[in-house]
């Protein structure tokens, strides 16, 4: 969801020499990903790697809503931030409440907040998309209920 289409972004060239086996793996992966070039995949993987290095405990995963940041073995970052926005608690109490709600250590919740601090537009867009999908699903459910009533 956060991804820039690296194939259309103006960029600066950088020559990198890859080990032959690594380059072959990168090319195979790019070929298996619909619409991905080797260069775009390399840029995405480097971007994700740098983000993970900056925010240990954050990973990236694919899903119905696209590729997104998540806690390792935990919820998506947007889910945590949405929860924190919706509760009345502030400060450490909010982190503790989120930790309990997501069965995660408060330190991991703090990692999600830190990631959000660096990428607020990305996470806000994911929250907006999830809210819109939820509204569409609720409208469809209401229509079905009216039809079968």
Explain what this protein looks like in three dimensions:
This protein is mainly α and 149 residues long. It has helices at 20-32, 38-54, 77-86, 92-101, 106-118, 120-148; strands at 58-61, 68-71. It has 6 helices and 2 strands. The longest helix is centred in the last third of the chain and has 29 residues, at 120-148. The radius of gyration is 19 Å and the shape is globular. The chain starts with 19 loop residues before the first helix and ends with a helix. The relative contact order is 0.11. The mean pLDDT is 90.
What sequence of helices (H) and strands (E) makes up the elements? Answer: HHEEHHHH
- Structural class label: mainly alpha
Distance between the termini: 38 Å
Taking all Cα atoms into account, the compactness measure Rg is 19 Å
Contiguous uncertain segments of 5+ residues: none
Shape: globular
Output the number of helix runs: 6
**Number of strand segments:** 2
Strand content: 5-15%
Strand order of the largest sheet: 1-2
Fraction of residues in helix: 55-70%
Strand count, sense and closure of the main sheet? Answer: 2 strands, antiparallel
Mean pLDDT over the full residue set: 90
